[in-house]
Amino acid sequence: MKLILELRLTSERVGGVGLVSACANGRIETVRFLLENMLSSSSFVKAAPASLASVIINGHVEIVKLLQEEIITSGGGGFSTYRAVLGKHAETVRLLLENNIGVGDISAALIIAVSNEDGETAELLIQHGEKKNGTALLIAVKDNT
Questions:
Q1: Per-domain residue ranges for the chain?
Q2: What is the CA radius of gyration of the chain?
Q3: What's the pLDDT tens digit per position in 38-75?
């Protein structure tokens, strides 16, 4: 199996797709293997943002931990916190905020957390320094949360 994967990694497209798929499905050992074999390739750089997005939307916090250094280095991770809030993954939100990854649209993330009545995530965002903006407050009052 390992030999087959090594042969398939010679194809840029297949290696990148494999990383995204392994991330989406929470296959941590496969992700580790692919990272070891892809970090120096352009296919990793191309696949990194989609890989992180699929991990976050599915709440695979252990893989987020594994990817965080590579994601920071590659400049990926934009809107990651927003995606984690959409998926209601508080532990992932906490990890991203602690590492200042993907905080580009944190105001929208707070609005979504309040809209989803996700108090734990909303509190994390507020503790991180996000202001209680008008839209989020109106939604909270309307929904009595």
A1: 1-75, 78-145
A2: 17
A3: 766 677 777 777 888 888 889 999 998 888 776 665 55
